[in-house]
Amino acid sequence: MAFAQWLAILILGLLPALCSATVKLDGQGQSFSSVIKQFEYSTRGNELTLFEKKSVDEPGYVTEQWFTGGPFDQYARIRIYIDGESEASLDFNVSMSGAVDAAAERKTPWSTRMFGRLANNGGFFNTFRIPFSFHIRITLTNTHSTGALWYIVRGLLGVKLAVGSFELPNKTRLRVYKQDKVIAPFDFVTLSNTSNKSGMLFLVTFDIRSDTATFMEGCVRAKIDNSDEITFLSSGTEDFFLSAFYFNDNSYEGFQSGLTYKPTNTNYTQVVAYKFFLDDPILFKDSFQLIWRNNEVLGGEKGCPDRFPAYLKGEGKPTDTFPGKKRQWASMNTAPKKAYIRSYVWVYEW
Fold this sequence. Notes:
Layout: H1 3-18, E1 30-41, E2 48-54, E3 60-69, E4 77-82, E5 90-93, H2 94-97, E6 110-111, E7 115-119, E8 122-126, E9 130-132, E10 135-141, E11 147-157, E12 162-163, E13 166-167, E14 173-183, E15 188-195, E16 199-210, E17 220-224, E18 231-232, H3 237-240, E19 252-253, E20 257-261, E21 269-276, E22 283-284, E23 287-293, E24 339-349
Antiparallel strand pairs: 1-11, 2-10, 3-8, 3-9, 3-11, 4-5, 4-10, 6-7, 7-8, 12-13, 14-24, 15-23, 16-21, 16-22, 16-24, 17-18, 17-23, 19-20, 20-21
InterPro entries: DUF2961
Pfam families: DUF2961 (PF11175)
């Protein structure tokens, strides 16, 4: 292997570590770990406690979870109750939390530093840091499936919470905002809505299906800190996940983003994709909304920008449309159709 290739591989391997916050240990930190081996989940709909830790003297956080077995399928519902709350602030589906579509036939193991699926019908894991002050309880409910399950959870007590490049406040909590609905062409959908809190976007997962691929023209937007100004986060849906041209080069799983499912030879288009924001932080002080649109309009009051801003006019960049130019769809080849979107937006809030 040439030296340049070896160096590039080394640098890519070190990047995640170099971009992570370093927390100084003072000798007071403590690890915790718990496992369940081959427990028989026999009653559909039963809410089973997988792990509970209470009356701790110092704040802590979960650092890893691993799920395997029949009850941890596409119907598995995980609820995490923080500090004695009666309604779980984290409530999610195991497969969707790992950016895995329930109908996916692909069985090749894959993982990133943050999550993955490393076995057929199991091996789901994540290293999401889930903070708590004095109590945490994690449960499983499955209304469809029973059988044997295996489970691992680990975490830390008395160690400062660091996510990506940032050390976060002690009062930080992780939230997941879920959306599951059909969107008409050119309509908008709010995927997450945080108010009266500061925070940081952590992870976005989309599972979208439509009769045409034109939904991928939709730009992802944000409203930050009650501003009337829209902040555009992408020039298209696949662009948001760092791909291009309607995900034209098959699936991929990277540290920053990935496309885990895109079936071929079908009469519809479906994509399952994820994007982490650890090295690409989006912060807010007071409020945050994430918004997606089914298809797009070029320019105009509600459209995705199709020209450079006016302050670049002196540099010779195009800044305005020609007189009489009519606003048009981003894609003129195929009439847009309704789209079904299922999304998870994970946000750290404090």
